[in-house]
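ARCHIVE RECORD
Type: protein–small molecule complex
Small molecule: protoporphyrin IX containing FE
Source of inputs: curated submission
Record status: active
Notes field left blank by submitter.
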Amino acid sequence: MDPQTYRLLHIVGLFAVFLGLGGSLALADASKSGGRAIALALHGLGLIVVLVAGFGLQAKLLDGFPMWLITKIALWLVIGALPFLVRKRYVPAMIGWIVALAAGAMAAWLVLERPF
Ligand code: HEM
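STRUCTURE (tokenized, with ligand):
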């Protein structure tokens, strides 16, 4: 696949991740039916698409795994774990919202600036 297709998939995957994340944080205390199930499915599916397209981009555009990319993968893990961490109350809901936005912003900043 060409890099533009991976780029598009990466971004569309991110839309799904953050849509699903918003829903799953808002419904963290709800039963796992209806809206919450859809939110969790979107979040999980989006995470897979982002990861696959991310590795596709890495293979097409990069030489190895620079530190900014490894950091992005760590942020992907944080974003992936947030619904569980908030649901189980390991992380307060308000912190979950803030961390979600900060992690997304940092991942985007890392690829734009490539500081390390
Ligand atoms: C944590 C969530 C993530 C966010 C918010 C994010 C965001 C972005 C954004 C905004 C871009 C720029 C798209 C463009 O090329 O115009 C990008 C590119 C890229 N992302 Fe991600 N990403 C995330 C996760 C990942 C993961 C997990 C990987 C690797 C497995 C990855 C690998 C890449 C690569 C290799 C590029 C292209 C770099 C280049 O153009 O040379 N990303 N990402």
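CURATOR ANNOTATION: The pocket of protoporphyrin IX containing FE is lined by residues 7, 10, 14, 50-51, 54-55, 57-58, 61-62, 69, 72-73, 75-76, 79, 104, 107-108, 111 (CB under 6 Å).
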